[in-house]
């Protein structure tokens, strides 16, 4: 659900999440993204830096609110776009490990 995401990646994501492909064309706006998340049954982990000037942090907050299944939102204070891992590496790794341990078995969603 990123702005200007290439359609072939959205097609792949929609297939993986078992979301009807007829909705994927609008997935670059936050309302359509929220609608897609309402339709998935998979657990969702959202990680976002509050200093992101490319993708607004509110987009992750809206996505979190839209999720109907198990969800987790982690905000990294002051982290810019794509640098949450660099800002707080140990915390990021801990969050990801907890999420994967809780929702995967042998690297596959449960």
Can you walk through the features of this model?
By secondary structure, the protein is α+β, with helices and mostly antiparallel strands. It is built from five helices and four strands, in the order H-H-E-H-E-H-H-E-E. It has helices at 7-16, 30-39, 57-66, 84-87, 89-103; strands at 44-49, 71-76, 104-105, 108-109. The chain has a two-stranded parallel ribbon. A two-stranded antiparallel ribbon has the order 3-4. Helix 2 (30-39) packs parallel to helix 3. It is globular. Residues 1-7 and 23-27 have low confidence and may be disordered.
Alpha-beta content class? alpha+beta
Average pLDDT for all residues: 80
Largest β sheet strand count, sense and barrel closure: 2 strands, parallel
- The low-confidence runs, each spanning 5 or more residues with pLDDT under 50, are 1-7, 23-27
Tell me roughly what share of residues is in helical segments. Answer: 40-55%
The coarse silhouette is globular
Tell me the fraction of residues in β-strands, as a range: 5-15%
Measure the end-to-end span. 23 Å
What's the Cα radius of gyration?
Answer: 14 Å
How many E strands? 4
Q: Give the strand order, joined by hyphens, for the main sheet.
A: 1-2
Order of helices and strands: HHEHEHHEE
The total of helices stands at 5
């Amino acid at each position: 659900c990123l702005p200007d995401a290439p359609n072939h990646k959205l097609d792949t994501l929609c297939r993986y999440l078992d979301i009807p492909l007829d909705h994927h064309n609008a997935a670059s706006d936050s309302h359509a993204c929220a609608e897609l998340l309402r339709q998935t049954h998979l657990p969702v982990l959202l990680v976002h830096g509050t200093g992101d000037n490319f993708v607004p942090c509110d987009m992750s907050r809206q996505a979190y609110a839209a999720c109907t299944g198990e969800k987790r939102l982690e905000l990294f204070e002051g982290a810019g776009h794509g640098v949450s891992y660099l800002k707080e590496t140990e915390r990021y790794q801990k969050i990801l490990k907890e999420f994967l341990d809780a929702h995967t078995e042998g690297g596959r969603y449960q």
